[in-house]
Specification:
about 0% strand
Length: about 250
């Protein structure tokens, strides 16, 4: 990218961070989602201090979920700061991670038409529109970590938007998708995006090569991300994805 585009991205990120951080600061509170009462803080706690010898599932079945996404909320809740400041820091972190891939998508999907000012406005408006989703806005003001779980998926989509992408980029996008699936299994629903990219290769041999690379990268991305928690589940239950697939692993 050119220096002008880098500057544009920095300005967009700064404005978005300031706007989102202002929400809890203006409200004076940080909203706690209902999940926080059940497992948000608990999973954040066991992500750094496993409690296998002390309790089993005090947070019910949610206690088996991948816990490391909940660590930032737990740490913020433990800091000697008020809720509004913690909420502002949490929202700023989410936007800081989400805005760059969203902006890159707008850069690739909105070809330049007209003046540079018009192009900047279109990209900024597209980014703002994406961040104005009711689902996202409802999560930004609370402890919900769904936006954080979506970060690797958004980067995968941003990489996929690059024209004439190489097999290496395809594998990287697949690895990020695998990471997103490890964070939250619902990210598996984004697989059709990867399949569309796979079919862009004109020859069967090229499709096979890219498909194998993407499959291996997706599996590696999932395995490496899930490994710290999967190993603990395996040691405690005999099943690295407990409570899923009991017929295959037992546990």
């Amino acid at each position: 990218m050119t220096r002008a585009l880098w500057l544009e991205l920095l300005v967009v990120v700064a404005v978005a961070v300031a706007a989102v951080a202002a929400i809890p600061l203006q409200a004076g509170v940080w909203g706690w989602s209902w999940d926080a009462l059940n497992h948000h803080i608990y999973l954040g706690l066991i992500s750094e201090s496993p409690r296998w010898s002390l309790d089993v599932i005090p947070a019910s079945t949610q206690g088996w979920q991948y816990p490391y996404l909940y660590w930032p909320v737990y740490r913020l809740a433990e800091l000697p700061i008020d809720g509004a400041t913690a909420g502002a820091l949490w929202g700023a972190l989410l936007v800081l991670l989400l805005v760059p891939p969203v902006w890159l998508l707008s850069l690739r999907l909105l070809p330049r038409q007209g003046s540079a000012i018009q192009s900047i406005f279109e990209r900024s408006a597209a980014t703002a529109l994406a961040l104005s989703s009711v689902v996202l806005l409802s999560a930004l003001g609370t402890t919900a970590n769904d936006p954080l779980a979506a970060v690797p998926l958004m980067w995968a989509l941003a990489i996929m938007a690059v024209p004439q992408a190489s097999d290496r980029r395809a594998a990287l996008a697949a690895a990020l998708w695998g990471m997103a699936v490890a964070f939250k299994l619902t990210a598996v629903l984004a697989a059709p995006f990867l399949l569309v990219w796979w079919w862009q290769r004109p020859k069967a041999s090229q499709q096979l090569r890219r498909g194998l690379a993407m499959a291996a990268a997706a599996g590696m991305g999932y395995a490496l991300t899930h490994a710290p928690w999967g190993w603990q589940l395996w040691q405690q239950t005999g099943n690295p994805v407990y409570p899923l697939l009991p017929g295959l692993f037992g546990g």
